Amino acid sequence: MIAFDLAACARPVGDFGRARPSVLHDDIMPEIGDGLASARGEPVSDFNLTDQEREMHNRVWRFLVAPHTRDWFYDTAVELQRTRISGATDTQFSADRYYHDLRTTEYASSAVRYRTVANDITLDIATLPATFQSICAVIEIDRQRAIAVANVTLAAPDARAEVAARKWENDQRIAWFTRALDYRFDSYSTALERLLVETPDPEARTVDTLLAQMEIFVRRAQAGDFCAVNPGGFVSKDGGVPSRYATMVSEPDIRK
């Protein structure tokens, strides 16, 4: 019970939204979480993290939380999930929370709300290529481990199980990132459509354009395509989401 009381807090954040070192969050909670995950029947690897895995964890974490605003991203639940104290709870997140944060925050004008959304999307897009590259590097590490464990004669007796456990952990982290990216996209889209109804403004066109750019990465992540040479060149066979403006019928009716 004490462990859960201690765990009921978000991971501390330092400069530029980076995780701040913390014995509780970096050592104590993960150790408790590994024990609970094992009790749930989940694989738990004892391997040290590679540089590539550490880099992926750091880059992915930025998309699991939202330190630049209030807790629309369920930061406490995210920390319990990250440390494996709880199982996956992110599938229950509501895309309304980001809009609620915008709506209840005082701004100088309604246009500034749109600019806030545009800025948040721009920051996400700016870091997505490097995040995809870090995920691709971990996918390659898992491939190399699988080859090594099949060919090295002096591997430890539990090496195959450890390799499989670490790949499972990496796959879970990548899947979580994909869901988090989709959640952000849905949250921004929901905010745009609610704002279009509540406070129409020409700034909405900028947000709509940025969402179309972000969707390229969302589709790639959903397809497991993290290793493309040209991250911006992906085109889904199903096409992009139509512009909210291109599909307007007449004022004030707005639909997708």
Characterize the structure shown:
The protein has 256 residues and is mostly helical. It has a domain at 54-70 and 94-233. Helix content is 61%, strand content 0%. The protein contains eight helices and no strands. It has helices at 2-7, 23-39, 51-64, 75-82, 96-104, 110-151, 159-198, 204-222. Helix 3 (51-64) packs parallel to helix 7 (159-198) and helix 5 crosses helix 7. The longest helix is centred in the middle third of the chain and has 42 residues, at 110-151. The protein is elongated and about 65 Å long. The termini are far apart. Mean pLDDT is 82; it is low at 1-8, 231-241 and 247-256.
Helix-strand blueprint:
Elements: H1 2-7, H2 23-39, H3 51-64, H4 75-82, H5 96-104, H6 110-151, H7 159-198, H8 204-222
Helix pairs in contact: 3-6, 3-7, 5-7, 6-7, 6-8, 7-8
Computed CA radius of gyration, to the nearest angstrom: 20 Å
Treating each run of at least 4 consecutive H or I residues as one helix, how many helices? Answer: 8
Ranges with pLDDT <50 over ≥5 residues? 1-8, 231-241, 247-256
Q: What class would the helix/strand composition place it in?
A: mainly alpha
Shape type: elongated
SSE order, one letter for each helix or strand? HHHHHHHH
Average pLDDT score? 82
N- to C-terminal distance:
47 Å
**Roughly what fraction of the amino acids lie in strands?**
under 5%
Structure summary, number of beta strands: 0
Q: Main β-sheet: number of strands, strand sense, barrel status?
A: none
Helical fraction: 55-70%
